[in-house]
Specification:
This protein is an alpha/beta fold and 131 residues long. It has helices at residues 7-15, 22-29, 39-50, 63-74, 83-90, 99-111, and strands at 2-5, 34-38, 76-79, 114-116, 129-130.
Length: 131
């Protein structure tokens, strides 16, 4: 199966795995599954760190190293934001106000990915989600 990790799922998998549901943990650990991380999530993490809303790094790791090591450790494939995702985003109803979550929804929809998320607002869209 093919899954897209919501930003909080990626962070929890890296630094607070106890916050993940057992189902999410099983999916992430299963080497048969293909896991994706959006470049939008990396962008979101960067912004939140810069404005002081997020502190995640080991003092010995910079942001780039943290992200690259985490992607490798979880065997994630990067999915870039493409025009087709933005066109899909433009058609989404205004249920969720968070721009980063909206692009993840559009990517999941466009790429036929199951979005692993604990966000109830996302679950209101007509996409496959899992927690």
């Amino acid at each position: 199966m093919r899954y897209l990790l919501d930003t909080h799922v990626f962070l929890w998998a890296c630094i607070e795995p106890e916050r993940l549901s057992s189902n999410s943990k099983d999916i992430i650990k299963n080497p048969q599954n293909m896991l994706f991380l959006s470049s939008a999530s990396i962008w979101e993490i960067s912004i939140k760190m810069k404005i002081g809303k997020l502190k995640i790094l080991d003092k010995n790791l910079d942001f780039k190293t943290f992200v690259e090591k985490s992607i490798k450790a979880l065997d994630l494939k990067e999915i870039s934001v493409l025009n087709k995702h933005i066109f899909s985003l433009h058609l989404l109803p205004d249920i969720h106000k968070d721009s980063f979550d909206r692009i993840l929804i559009a990517q999941a929809k466009s790429e036929d990915l199951i979005l692993i998320t604990n966000d109830n607002q996302i679950k209101k869209y007509n996409i496959k989600t899992l927690w």
